[in-house]
């Protein structure tokens, strides 16, 4: 395996899934099962594997953590400020989708819980997910 002279960040994906009911907007959050930020709420997501595209990774991570499938995801933004992940340097590509109907999530893999949360009642979140959600809300909702 080739070793680069300069350190490289890990690439991650995070997924924003929105469900609208009347005038309220709900976002799908998971409660993290593991450190860092164990028991904190977060967007579904994780590390990109070497053999998959960014979108494939986002579809896989969303399904692994919530059992929800969004076949079509759109890129929203990339986040990569140093210190966003205490495990090391990461860059996350954020994807999103809007659902026409509410689908019951089932927590799995790295998630101990998965639930819909109203945008006006978002709890404290892990990583920089509060910033991501605020920017998404201001852009689309």
Tell me what the structure shows.
This protein is of the alpha+beta class and 141 residues long. It has a single domain (10-140), classed as Nucleoside Triphosphate Pyrophosphohydrolase. It contains two helices and seven strands; from the N terminus they run E-E-E-E-H-E-E-E-H. The chain has helices at residues 54-66, 129-140, and strands at residues 10-21, 24-32, 41-42, 45-47, 74-79, 90-99, 111-118. Strands 1, 2, 3, 4, 5, 6 and 7 form a seven-stranded mixed sheet that branches. A hairpin with an 8-residue loop joins strand 2 (24-32) and strand 3 (41-42). The chain is globular and about 55 Å long.
Question: What are the key terms here?
Answer:
alpha+beta; seven-stranded mixed β-sheet; single chain; 35% strand; Nucleoside Triphosphate Pyrophosphohydrolase; 7 strands; globular; 141 residues
